[in-house]
Amino acid sequence: MGGTKNLWILHPNHPVEPGMAWYYLVQCAYNVDALLSLLEISFQWEWVNPFAYSSALEFLEKEHVVNETLRKKQVLKLMIQSRHQTFIWTPIFQIKWSTSVRGDFREMMAHHIVTNALIFGSSFYRFTRIGSMIFLIHDLSDVPIDMSKLANFVKWKATTIICFVVMVLMWVITRLTIFPFVIFRSVLFESYEYMVVKGTMDPALYEAYCYIFYSLLGALVLLHVTWFLILIRIGWTLVSKGETHDYSEHKLGEKQVMKKNA
Description:
By secondary structure, this protein is mainly α. The chain is 71% helix and 5% strand. The chain has a 3-stranded antiparallel sheet.
């Protein structure tokens, strides 16, 4: 007897084999590390100088800007420009956007938060079967993604194109077909039947947390669609201009970022 109904039958008495436990531990460690690494490369913090305004005035005096009104306007302009680059400001320290921030920072941050919440939640509530399936389809589609980025990094254009095509196909099959129409569908329409109606779970307990998991999984579907649109943009640039730009790393593309930083 197969099918997705086996993800729910006999819950919560599913045996967790040592291999499954290690799989969960490795996935948890990887995703927590990815979240911390994303924060590290996206932000930089520094102490706030309480005398910044007066120090700036003295600097402009040394630069022979003697007009008092002009000096204050220039100082305020510099401070406003700095504030636009600031993510969090306090009287003691400030956190600024780093120059190495990813182009898809918001999507990646949302993805890591949702993924870690699903990992801890599925482990705590013994949804390891459905969790391992989600891990599997993500791991399968991650391979051509990393291969495509590696080929693009070493400027192997033909290999990049091949890996990109495989990546798009795998993305459509795993993340845009299997995940929403098989796994998510099973969560929406089969979990209640086999855990509550034909199982032993209290309906009140099911209702207490099911919408949290619905929302997290739905957010993953939306993120997959968003990244697919980024992939389409990369493919369009490749076809129309013959250039490969990873817009997930840089919103403007690699060459535009190089010109901007030059």
